[in-house]
Amino acid sequence: MSIDHSNLTWSKPAADRLEWLRTRYPADKQRALILPVLHMAQREFGWVSPSVIDFVAAAIPVPTIQVEEVACFYTMYNRKPIGRWHLQVCHNISCSLMGAEIVLEHIEGKLGIKRGETTPDGEFTLMGAECLGSCGTAPMMQVNDHYYENLGLSDVDELLETLRATADIADDEANVAHGPGSGPSRKLPQDGEAHTAGSGVVLPGHAAGGH
Amino acid sequence: MESNYPVKGKDQVLLNFERGTESWPLSSYLTRGGYSTAKSVLSGGKYDSPADLVGVVKASGLRGRGGAGFPTGLKWSFLPKEPSGPIQLVVNADESEPGTFKDRVIMEENPHQLIEGCVLSCWAIESASCYIYIRGEYVPAIKRMVAAVDEAYAAGHLGEDIYGSGFTCHVTVHSGAGAYICGEETGLIESLEGKKGQPRIKPPFPAVYGVFGYPTIVNNVESIAAVTYIAHAGADSYRQWGTEKSAGTKLFSVSGPVKRPGVYEVAMGYPFKDLLENECGGMLDGVALKALIVGGSSVPVVNAEKALKINMDYESCAENDTLLGSGGVIVIGEGTCMVRTLMTLLRFYHHESCGQCTPCREGTGWIERIVTRIENGDARSGDIDELYRIADNMELRTICTLADAAAWPTKSFIEVFRDEFEAHIEQGKCPHDNQFPDHLNLRGGGKPQRHADPEHAFIA
Ligand SMILES: Cc1cc2nc3c(=O)[nH]c(=O)nc-3n(C[C@H](O)[C@H](O)[C@H](O)COP(=O)(O)O)c2cc1C
Ligand code: SF4
Ligand code: FES
User: Fold this and answer.
1) Average pLDDT in the B315-337 region?
2) Best to test chain A binding among B139, B258, B353 (most A CBs inside 10 Å)
3) Taking a contact as any Cβ pair under 8 Å apart, which residues of chain B between 350 and 379 contact chain A?
4) In A, which residues are within 8 Å of B345 by CB distance?
5) What is the pLDDT of residues A51-84, one digit of tens each?
6) What is the pLDDT of residues B117-159, one digit of tens each?
7) Exposed e or buried b per residue across B92-123, where buried means at least 16 C-beta atoms within 10 angstroms of its C-beta
8) Percent above pLDDT 90 for chain B
9) Ligand 2 lined by B182 (C-beta under 6 Å)
10) Smallest Cβ distance to B442: which of A29, A36, A152?
11) B446 to chain A: which residues are within 8 Å by CB?
12) I want to staple B373 with a disulfide (CB 3.0 to 4.6 A). Which of B112, B203, B378, B383 is the partner?
């Protein structure tokens, strides 16, 4: 799972997107590319290491310190390698009213790690997250790019099993280039499949479901 | 007026699409009359001048839907007559206020209405450039918006010389990276420029010195999507809903132990009681209403009695000692520990303080620690007054209102539920034996009670 950071190069879609991004911001304000390009780098290289910061700074180009500053300020940039599956359980108000702490404690017990930690096998990183804008389907968690909502503890057990059994599938080009995401680009088994009622695993959103 | 509640079906200003259908592609939007307003406005057939359209938005009474409720048309008229650079429109799609999940419904289900709103708003404020800043976690919304923008360019609704009108408008979707403070408009501007999202000292206001130093208007997603309707149907049509000071319809995202949590579009002035009973199907069985946070986590909490008196408009919220805010309606059930709930909120504000102002950086940490020790049974005498005093000292002393957003809930939790804080201190522990209300059968391995029916949050 670990990606070599000693000799970084962009994939073709990422390189193309970088050129396109340059045209979207004023020519003398290219610092604006830092957030989108860091997102893209995290997609490509898994996490934002010091080499990734240098690489991004040189690509834009801007002084390294400007990229460093941004990478430190925003929570979505992972400054350490993270597990194959990044579990972020929302524990803000609406989710906690519906039992988010119970879900978090349950996962901690199940995986034998505390929030903020990664399992020794590198499969899961667990975090408590602040409101992810899915309060009507609380409790919920984000796994890599996906929201899982209306969670019960049996859903959580089922989901962890499914994730563990899911092999890495390279994501499509559009996903690599589109930017944000909580970790390396990686497909989940439910991608593209319509939500089936009662499976306990609910795709992002609300009544219209299925993205 | 009564007959206009709630707004249904095709009359809806924002959720004017059929539920459960593929409402987001351009083809679907065109069947709802999509881009016809942009066509007539850009060709000069509808309004004589951009100033005319600004006038209509003013007359409509539209107030910003991001939280502060500032009149949109008035904000637009603050742009300098002789701008120092190209005017920018920035759409605030950061949606990070806890309890708020309405803008994502517009972006995921009705993205073209937002884009048409961007074109119309840009025409009105004489801008050729718009950025939509979406919080990075909203991957599905970002994908939908990016796809919709691509479609709009391909079909000639965006770009150079749109419809041969000579008017140019570029829209770029830009994503944030996980910071609540980037919802504050000048924090957002800094972030868009590729910096830490630290709010700027005002003045100068963004209308004079905004993104890249250019004159800038920042508006919420819901505000801009409403502009599409207003430009199309006119001010009076928009004013058929709502009250004198709170015109039109508004999206409310309802969460907590109710039967049908979700996003509902209702006319302003709709009683909370009806929203709860009719739209949300009432409280979960066996759970009584204890308290309400009506406008996202930053507004003062009210008890059940007051909650039932609130109408969903700016005036009624103010009369009942709270604020309409972003429309994030957080319903709190009996059995919930209010000290613990406040602790959850303060952890959030402490984490999200950008650290520039001492009262906010230090204050959010102090009040979080005090509430935490009250909850854990380690309170010291005088803690409640100390808490109140610190919160009081955080108000109106900082660069942005995040400090106030932490202070208001704190003071109101103490004012409304002081007995609970005192009980924690007297008993030296949290008096709620079950930290979590009984309606959650999660401990038994199951789901929150409502899960069987329905599966999802509703949009109506
Ligand atoms: C801490 C803080 C967070 C905010 N978060 C948001 C947000 O997520 N979305 C939003 O539209 N406005 C947010 N606002 C309000 C914006 O500063 C601004 O008033 C708003 O985007 C203006 O648009 P409107 O006039 O259309 O409401 C926030 C304000 C503060 C102080
Ligand atoms: S009030 Fe808080 S969040 Fe706002 S600028 Fe000051 S320190 Fe930053
Ligand atoms: S409180 Fe958890 S998603 Fe909003």
Assistant:
1) 96
2) B139
3) 351-352
4) 92-93
5) 999 999 999 999 999 999 999 999 999 999 999 8
6) 999 999 999 999 999 999 999 988 998 999 999 999 999 999 9
7) bbbbbbbbbbbbbbbbbbbbbbbbbbbbbbbb
8) 85
9) no
10) A152
11) 152-154
12) B378
Q: Residue B456: pLDDT above 90?
A: no
What whole-number distance in Å separates Cα of residue B375 and Cα of residue B312? Answer: 32
Rounded-to-integer distance, Cα A104 and Cα A128, Å: 7
Which helix (H) or strand (E) segment holds residue B250: the answer is: strand B249-255
Angle in degrees, 0-180, between the axes of helices B221-233 and B111-125, rounded to the nearest 10:
70
Cα–Cα distance measured from residue A49 to residue B154, given in angstroms and rounded to the nearest whole number: 38
**Contact predicate B302/B321, CB 8 Å:** yes
- Using the atom order of ligand 2, give the atom closest to the CA of residue B403: 1
CATH class of B9-238: alpha beta
Nearest of B150, B170, B151, B152 to residue B160 by alpha carbon: B170
CATH number, domain B250-333:
3.10.20.600
Domain range B338-431, its CATH number among 3.30.70.2860, 1.20.1440.230, 1.10.1670.10, 1.10.3720.10? 1.20.1440.230
Alpha-carbon distance of A45 to A51, in angstroms, equals 10
Instruction: Report the alpha-carbon distance of residue A26 to residue A18 in Å, rounded.
Output: 14
Query: Which residues line ligand 3 at a C-beta cut-off of 6 Å?
Result: A 90, 92-95, 131-135, 138, 140; B 98
Confidence check: pLDDT of B2 > 80: no
Which domains are assigned to chain A? 12-73 (1.10.10.1590), 85-176 (3.40.30.10)
pLDDT beyond 70 at A208? no
Q: Is the pLDDT of residue B55 over 70?
A: yes
Q: What's the B397 CA to ligand 2 centre distance in angstroms?
A: 10
Residue A198, pLDDT score: 23
**Residues of chain A contacting residue B93, judged by C-beta atoms under 8 Å apart:** none
| More confidently predicted of A197 and A130 | A130
Determine contact, residues B231/B206, Cβ cutoff 8 Å: no
What is the distance between the alpha carbons of residues B298 and B183, in angstroms, rounded to a whole number?
A: 13
The confidence band for B452, taking pLDDT boundaries of 50, 70 and 90, is: very low
How far is the C-alpha of B458 from the C-alpha of A209, rounded, in Å? 11
CA distance linking residue B113 with residue B222, whole number of Å: 10
The ranges assigned to domains in chain B are 9-238, 250-333, 338-431
What 3 state SS string does B105-166 have? HHHHHCHHHHHHHHHHHHHHHCCCEEEEEECCCCHHHHHHHHHHHHHHHHCCCCECCHHHCC
Tell me the pLDDT tens digit for each residue of B241-262: 999 999 999 999 999 999 889 9
Please give the mean pLDDT across all residues of chain B.
92
Per-residue confidence (pLDDT) for residue A154, from 0 to 100: 87
Give the pair of three-digit tokens for residue B41.
């406005």
Terminal CA-CA length for chain A: 26
As a whole number, mean pLDDT of residues A177-196 equals 40
Report residue B349 as tokens: 């504000």
3-state secondary structure of A82: coil
CA–CA distance, B169 with B160 (Å, rounded to integer): 6
Average pLDDT for B368-383: 95
Ligand 3 atom closest to the Cα of residue A92 is 1
Window 236-265 of B, Cβ < 8 Å to A: 253-257, 261-263
